[in-house]
Amino acid sequence: MESFFSRFKSALVLVAVLLAQVIGLASQMKRANYAAREDGHHVRGLRAWPAYTIAPVESLLKHMGGGVRGVWHSYIDLRHVRQHDKDLQYQIDQLRLREASLAEDARQGQRLQRLLAFKQQYVGKTVAAQVIGTGGGDQGRIVTIDKGSNDGIRPDMAVITPDGAVGKIRDVFAMSSQVLLLNDMSSGAGVILLNTRSRGILRGGPGGVLIINNLLPDERIKAGEPLITSGGDRVYPRGLPVGNVIYMKPDPDHQPYATIAIKPAANLDRLEEVLVVTEVSQQLNTAADDDQEEGKKAAEVVADRLPGLKKADEKAGDENAATSPAPTLPRPQPAIHTDRYSPGAAPPATSLTPGAPNTQFVTPTQHTTPNAPEEP
Amino acid sequence: MPRRHFTNRRELEEHSFHPAVLLAVPLCALFLHAYLPRIWEPLSILDLPMIIVLYFSIAWRNPIAGTLFGTVIGLLQDLPGNQFIGVNGIAKSVLGYAAASIGLKIDVENMATRVLMNFVFCLLQSVLLYLIQSILLGQAEAHPRWVHELLRAAINSAVAIPIFLLLDRTRMDSVL
Asked: Which of B77, B82, B93 sits opposite A17 (nearest CB)?
């Protein structure tokens, strides 16, 4: 027996180590959708070690690199800056004009949606963060950012760039956080195809591609069609750009569904700075409008938003102003021949007696026809 | 001048390293494994921890040491990611054991042998990872991309050669 253990000592150690790790894997598999969710307490404790040791070094290297780049951009690469500045200023002016009209449209749309009690989430408050590292390898698509729980970051917050959605927060540590990118295989986001208004679930595919595989083939879906977040997943605020359709082809593994490949709007392979959405708002900047509209009836709000109706109402109001200063509800014309169904003829329900004769309903002015038999 | 006296070929080819090297090299590999893809995403194809596990396992020629070293490096590699902790641990345990066992039988100082070993072990790791994900973890979406894995094996073999030569210089017995 002793010779057996000494002879197969190496193999037994290997088997023991493998067995211990398989048991460890089995204990982690209790959690559904493991890779996409925040870790449990014990696993997060384990993952905290590299976060507290590697992240500061990565952050230091990032800032050193930023310093070198800053020297280059600030002192050396300053050619054509004035012209560039003018061009940018012109673009800003144009964008401000466009933003004003879009914001008005958005406010109008939102007011109408509020009438339908349809709540949507928009980006309210963000925290800027720098990408300082990755999860390593190409099995998982996660990056590390230099903001953590000290900066108000919490799991499942959306991470975006000005180009579009990037991912969501997975594990949070004191000074760093993990961001699960959209192209991770465990990732998922609700999206809307902008032209066809089809709703789908965006997932990461093999090799870091973005795919939608829960939609039926639709020949209206063309390459280049843009996608936005739907807001239905309660992670990503509605309306963020996600990407564009590259192609659509039948999915042989999941018939009759199609596979739609998506090119992400944000460059997920070269992320530098990102924004973490720490607060979502249910509405755009409509505080002033709310004060004015508080107490108004729904129909009046709609009338305010619809110019044609408003003008018509104003004209009618001007005409009626002289004759009837206070608007009243229309009343029915008095009946020529009153009967039991005439307005005001029926006594109140509280005065009725169960089983009483029907004569209570006959009013004193009831009209009887000549041919009708007289009651005894 | 102190000299080491070897009694057989195995003892002759068992190399030892300074503890600082044993600590610094794996940590450096793990750090670069997490940091390099941030600079250029295609660098995520590199598996520096695997190269380090192979080198030390071959150098020690001790399957138990290779197994334990592979386990520790694999588990540390799993920590910064979002995968199950133990996936790389299992794969690299087997790799460390196999590399140390083979190192007992063939001449691993030869350049061609080193390239071939790296290529084969890299493919072996891909197969192990696929089996772990598809069978143990039941991940249906874990489709093998064999062209990608062949490319990964070729690139890692090419990168391993200069790293092996560099690490050869850190052997304590080569100095004596």
From this structure: B93
Looking at CA atoms only, how far is residue B1 from chain A in angstroms?
Answer: 35
Taking the Cβ of residue B128 and every Cβ of chain A, the question of whether any pair is shorter than 8 Å is answered with: no
Contacts of A59 in chain B (CB under 8 A): none
Which pLDDT score is estimated for B13?
63
Instruction: For Cα atoms B25, B98, A135, give the angle at the middle one, nearest 5 degrees.
Output: 45
Check B93 against A136: CB less than 8 A apart.
no
Average pLDDT, chain A: 74
| B80 vs A contacts (CB less than 8 Å) | 47, 50-51, 54, 133-136, 144
Whether B118 contacts chain A with CB within 8 A? no
- Residue A216 CB coordination number (10 Å): 9
* Predicted TM-score (pTM) of this structure: 0.64
Token representation of residue B32: 């670069």
- Both tokens of A102, joined, read 């879009």
Tens-place pLDDT, residues A67-102: 777 776 666 666 677 888 888 988 888 888 888 878
Which residues touch A229 (CB under 8 Å, ≥6 apart)?
Answer: A165, A189, A190, A191, A192, A236, A237, A238, A239, A240, A242
Residue ranges of A 305-334 with Cβ closer than 8 A to chain B: none
User: Are the beta carbons of B90 and A21 separated by less than 8 Å?
Assistant: yes
- Residue from the list B41, B75, B94 with its beta carbon closest to the beta carbon of A270: B41
ipTM greater than 0.95: no
What distances in angstroms separate CA B17 from CA A161, A234, A347, one per listed residue? 47, 53, 106
Cβ pair B47, A137 in contact under 8 A: yes
Q: Where would I find the beta strands (DSSP E) of chain A?
A: 122-134, 142-145, 158-161, 164-172, 177-181, 188-193, 199-204, 210-215, 226-229, 241-250, 258-264, 273-281
Transcribe A222-284 into DSSP letters.
-TT-EEEE-STTSSSPTT-EEEEEEEEEE-TTSTT-EEEEEEESS-TTS--EEEEEEEEESS-
**B76: which chain A residues are within 8 Å (Cβ-Cβ)?**
50
Cα distance between residue A165 and residue A144, in whole Å: 16
Coil, strand or helix at B2: coil
Nearest CA in chain B to A132: B38
- Residue A136 to residue B68, Cβ atoms within 8 A: no
Find out whether B21 and B168 touch, Cβ atoms under 8 Å: no
Q: Are the C-beta atoms of residues B75 and B86 closer than 8 Å to each other?
A: yes
SS3 A126: strand
Q: What average pLDDT does range A285-314 have in this prediction?
A: 48
- pLDDT surpasses 90 at A65: no
Q: Is-contact A345 A334, C-beta < 8 A?
A: no
Classify residue A97 by burial, with Cβ atoms within 10 Å: 0-12, 13-18, 19+.
exposed
- Tokens 């997975």 appear where? A170
Does position B94 have pLDDT exceeding 90, yes or no?
yes
What whole-number distance in Å separates Cα of residue A54 and Cα of residue A61? 11
Q: Which residue's entry shows tokens 């560039």?
A: A84
| CA-to-CA dists, residue A132 to A150, A169, A295, angstroms | 17, 15, 51
